[in-house]
Amino acid sequence: MSIRTALLIGFTVAILCGCLRKEILDDINIESAVGFDEAGKEKIRGTVLIPVYKKGETANKTLTAVSPTAKDVLEELQYKTSEPLVNGSIETALYGKRLAKRGIFPFVDQFHRDASIGTRLYLAVVDGTAERLLEGRYGRQGSGIYLSNLLKQNIEQRDLPKTNLHLFLKTYYADGKDPFLPYIRRVGEDVQVIGVALFRNDRMVDTIGRSDMFYFKIAADAYSEGTHTIRLNRQHYVSIKNISTKRTISFSGPKTRPHIHVHLALEGVVREYKRGAFTFDVRKSVEKTFEQQIRSKTAALLRRFQEKHIDPIGFGDLAASRYRQFRHRDFYKNYSHLPIRVTAEVTIRDTGIIE
Amino acid sequence: MDFQTKVYRNDTSGLYLWVSYIKPMVDIETVARSIFPYLFHRPFSSLEDIRQALPIDDAYISSDPNDVKAKLLEGYLFVRLHETDETGLLIKAQKTLERTLTIPEVEFSVVGPKESFIESLETNLYLLRKRIPIDRLTVKMTRVGTLSKTKVAVVYIDGIANPDNVQTVLQRIEQVEFDEMIDSSYIVQIISDNRHSPFPQLLDTERPDRVAAVLAEGKVAIMVDGSPHVLIGPTTLVEFFSSFEDYFLNWTIASFFRLIRLFSVTFSILITPIYVATLNYHYELIPKDLLGTLITSRREIPFPPILEVLFLELTIELLREAGARLPTKVGQTIGIVGGIVIGTASVEAGLTSNVLLILVALAALASFTTPVYKIGNTIRLMRFPFILFAEMWGLLGVAFCFCIVMTHLLYLTSLGRPFLAPLYPPRWRDLKDAFIRLPFTSQSKRPETLRTEQPIRFNRKKAKEKRDIDE
Amino acid sequence: MASVAERLQVSPFMTFFVIVSMQIGVGVLGFQRVIAKTAGHDAWISVLLAGASSHLILIVLYWLLQQADGDFLLLHQRLFGRWVGGALSSLLALYFAAMAFVVLRTYIEVIQVWMFPDLKTWEFSLAFLFLCLYITVGGFRVVVGIYFFCLIIPSYLLFTFWFVLDYTDFYQLLPILDHPPSTIVKAAKQMTLTMLGYETILLFYPFIKRGNQSAKWAHAALLTTTLFYALLTVLTLAYFSEKQLQRQIWPTLTMWKMVELPFIERFEYIGIANWLLIILPNVCLGLWCSSRICKQLFPVRQKTALLVIAAICFFSTLLIHDRKEVDFVNTILNRVGFYFLYIWIPCLAGITYIVKKVRGNV
């Protein structure tokens, strides 16, 4: 028994000596979003968004600082607050357009290195400056939540392909794929998703507009919910919902110059059709039109990628999984001339409760 | 002086009798009605005649002064033929005043019998024997306590209970060295395997039906005269969370309630430490929607979370203690008023946050779900080391404290049997009555932990009859 | 010395828990990086190979134990005489003690990087070792009890990997066997280091009831660990791209960052806290084995040896300061373990076999 009492005493001594730095919940400033912009030649302007919780609506506060490197910027900001800034809860990180064109890797890497930041962080490029966007007042629960919900909702139910910090880094480091990020803009008191920003390595080189986002998502990701409206002819539109897609990419031919076949299968349900009964013939024609649209638009997108030498769909990686001893270098040497064929198959299931 | 000696004269034979007794212990009415007529009006010539004539069975002749002393103190009459005689007749004339049988207060159940043990050992044995009317129900009597000379009965079913268990119990009781043995809980504390542990190692109950059920399983019961609580051993941790009412309900319902109980106990112990840990160190764990609520609730509070928590916990303990000491009517009012008023007032005053108030209240409520009173106290106590560790090392501290508690439980034994069975060492078959309760037809074997001599309870095949469709 | 009182023994089923728990230690958090560097997306094959080899070694271990009647140290003594045999056994004691302190120090490092950067090493080390002493003083039965719970309770962590599936691309594993076999074998060798732990059976075999029946549980344990590691490797390879994986020091922890439960946002903190339960038995058994060897070799009580070894471990944890040093000791320990299991044990078996043929018995 004496050894146990000795242990007990030893325990108590060991425990009581311990004291760790606390980050008590209401004594800290919890950042919910950050933004980076260019500020002159070698400097970066960093903005952090801090929610100010009050009973009822949550207010926002932003702080900015200018510094040569990203890490410094966030450190600089500590000088401006009475309560320490902590970044464990950051949900969105925004990059100004000009900075994105210069290259955002250092600013993404620092998140990667920081153990307290989660990999579900959303990244986005701002058409304009991140600072201005973050200064706006959106939503009732604070701008931070507004932004992350905006992106989340668009990814899950609309035309944004899946993306977050983890996926960005995954595609950045992958040899056969190039990253992309949502492209957003502040419009008055709202923020809108206006497209997808395409990157070569870590520099933004192109954007996809809203009209093409749907086709990009089908090719790059899979759809499981969401609505799309297609134009039949002149004034007539048909709205399809509950869309689920599947893409199949196959390669044939030599591994340095393969023929790529992209097949997109889409299933949906008619939501709105103004022109009377949705008969079998009408359905067939809608399907055909849709197929044709998918074919042409997607092919146009892919051609654009080839011309710009970017590969956001990830053909390189997919090819690497089909061929043995695949070399990405050889593949990309011929990338712009590779024949890519797009086919589509649309099935419209039923027509809702009325015909 | 309440020890009296009176001289009486027998009418018929003319002999004088010296009758000695201790007045408070003797039932004067019984004596006057049943004994004195025989003593004074019947013819006899020796003590032996009187003994045979008396209708009282517990009467014998003794000349051992210690025995006489002991019996006088118990309420026996000592009848001698001459004043200076050493030998005399001891006649039992004990006063028996006791409580009437009432409903169990601590282990109340909505369904099922509502008889409860009382202080008298004889009555308790009666309650037990009528439920197990077989001859193999063995009762071994001893006396414990140099001053109190309390009667202690060790009860078990011969042929089912493991003789080792019985032997352990008997031996330990034999070795008890104490002066005034008031209650069975004194015995528990002295004969427990691990005296320094806050966890009780012998189950105590005031229900005769429960004792009867566990004796049938193969356990050993210890009854103490003067105590309405009967001890049962060997026991395991899981039994402290099973209420006897579980056996009166349908097994699915009973299993569900048991699981709820276990969950609520875990919740009760862990929720406040997790609150402390999360608010101190791990703000990232809190979902964003909750973050706003928590921060606004803590805004005005000047204390760090640990002080908040300790303040509320101690308030609840105070309320509980105060409520326990006051007479019933006042106690109830204090409980309710105190709870509501103090709680609301402290939130208004900005001393605690309303979120924490709810958590602490729920935790306190959850800790009341334990059917056995003793383990409820242990759970109350358990919370504090966890809170301390959470304050030091956050979630890591909680995990650390958990390991310490687990190790402690691994060390515990109950009458030599591992306390954590059927979890460890894993006894798969015993799990049928641990976290869930399988129907009676599946419980044809006695618990393995007890290592009973006769493991089969009833014929399983006969219990489960199978019929084909439309047969 | 090989027979142990029955009341101190545990059922052979417990062998399963001890071995699985011993093999799953700190290594799980970061092993994928090393093997992926060598064998790329075929690393999971290396895992399976390493697992297969461990079964073979286990068969040899059991054979040796049968020859030595359950007492492994006796074997050293019989074959090499008292002094050399004793020296060899002392090396084994050193190895186990080193295992204990390396596991502890690595875990402390993980905490310092991920959770509490200002946690002082000596603080946690002291408290943890006290806890281990509390456990080991109770004897092998209590240690096995800890093993049992520390495997069952954290097992729910397996389900957390479900959340990661959304972000996996299993096509990254194709084409299979795209790497030259030599690299796959080399990665298998690296993998064996992570799967070490079952050599402790040499020490606790006498504590198992009906020891010869425990072989099937031990093999089941190895199979389970192999499958577990293989599945985890597959998941990791699909979750990260190759170069991304190379930059992660603790891929498993990074994967946990993606888990999001309704009430809990950042799961990796809970994972790290639970990891305490997983490494606790590893450290305890290291201390126990080490002190047991000391007790059998030198005239000391096991309790005294335990205290001394724990003190040595404590001071050793203080000597290691940063990641480089942690990596370094890990590498050394793993190398020693590898040579012991894969080179020394087969040699020993060979020698025993020859001696048996010559002498008749050992």
TrEMBL record, chain A:
Localisation: Membrane
Alphabetized UniProt keyword annotations: Germination, Lipoprotein, Membrane, Palmitate, Signal
Topology in membrane: Lipid-anchor
Major localization listed first in the record, in broad terms: membrane
Pfam name, any one: Spore_GerAC_N
Spore germination protein N-terminal domain span: 23-185
The Spore germination GerAC-like C-terminal domain, residue ranges: 195-352
Protein family: Belongs to the GerABKC lipoprotein family.
NCBIfam families xref list: spore_ger_x_C
Name the UniProt record assigns to this protein: Spore gernimation protein XA
Organism encoding this protein: Geobacillus uzenensis
